[in-house]
Amino acid sequence: MPNIVAIVGRPNVGKSTLFNRLTETREAIVDEIAGVTRDRHYGKAMWNGVEFSVVDTGGYIQGSDDEFEGEIRKQVQIAVDECTSLLFLVDVSEGITEFDKEVAKVVRKSKKPVMVVVNKVDNADRNAYAAEFYALGLGEPHCISSNSGSGTGDMLDALVKSFPEDTGAIPGDHLPKIAIVGRPNVGKSSLTNALLGEERNIVTPIAGTTRDTIHSRYNKFGHDFLLIDTAGMRKKAKVHEDLEFYSVMRTIRAIETSDVCVLMIDATQGIESQDLNIIHLVGTNHKGLVIVVNKWDLVEKETMTTKHFEEAIKAKLAPFRDVPIIFTSVTEKQRIMRVIEVAMEVYQNKKTKIPTSKLNEFFLPLIEKFPPPAIKGRVVKIKYVTQINDTSAFIFFCNSPQYLAEAYKRFLENQFREHYNFTGVSVSFYFRKK
């Protein structure tokens, strides 16, 4: 199961600064998807070889000052419900406030690992003041300065050790996992119910996960997979449904647990910024993607043909255009089975492993025929390419990777996609010095 860490606490204690520091500890190249605004409050971090996700809860507060504390209370509760671990950030210069005590009460009741992180400890005197936070009853405070980075290494050592041990595979965990994601009211529940509502003796819910994710096994019409039932999960806490943060947490969990994500969009509204953020999350986590345009029966066909609509979507997805798009009407039961078939095809594409010898047989003659353009008089020579383990990421070894033009990288990816079937899979090309 994925490890998701939420940073909780009052406003202005340094949550965003800590978030930025944690998510920048990762040494791997961060994928940039053109045209997508990066979600500033969700990121990946790595420490001691352990990868985890970080969520800055402060990014989801809306409303006036008098609503502020109520919103934060709700968010702390959601973070407790949804995350693996919590970092409870407090400010050494202000000491324990009444609101800190309230947050401590909520997190103390949870069985999740919670670390009290005392921020702005940048000298020995302040280190002594941090002892006050033992009174919160949440164990030893960890002193840091998120500005300078002081103390964050020790804190991360303790954090990674606190992650729950894997309790073992759930029944059917070897099967493909498909999640249906999207904005509210696009038809996720209807599609889930259409798939799971028939022949329930064949479709069986599987319990046993430690974090209340509902997996339902779908085993009919020649398909066998686990459906991550985000619609079912949502019933647990309807009071939170209006909160953006709740929606974000559910989506993150569903994406991280899945192999392939089925993103549903409303044909009457088209693709919106929130959909692009979800697509970015899918790409960041290297999951497969299928886009389902629901409510197609409500669209006037004379003015908006399938081809035009598809092109409009792909224009927004650029440069990652190699994504299957299916037009459905769940209420009319149109093309529902096609969604399953295509999702399983994308799953197979995602599993593709190309031998290093075959990759070099394809790429090296191509690069020799169409070499990278020289930049500032520097000639880049690509010598060797290999796939990283069982991922859709590839490393090219060359003499001067910093002089490779983005346009040339896109050229290589386009040629690669024409030769190999990675439809629905985000491909990452990394260039390293050799």
Short description:
The chain is 35% helix and 21% strand. It has 434 residues and is of the alpha/beta class. The protein is globular.
Structure description:
- The protein is built from 13 helices and 16 strands.
- The chain is an alpha/beta fold and 434 residues long.
- A 7-stranded mixed β-sheet has the order 8-9-10-7-11-12-13, sandwiched between helices. A 6-stranded mixed β-sheet has the order 2-3-1-4-5-6, sandwiched between helices.
- About 9% of the residues have low confidence.
Notable characteristics:
434 residues, alpha/beta
How far the N terminus sits from the C terminus, by CA atoms, comes to: 35 Å
Low-confidence stretches: 25-39, 199-203, 207-212, 232-242
Separate helix tally: 13
What does the average pLDDT come to? 80
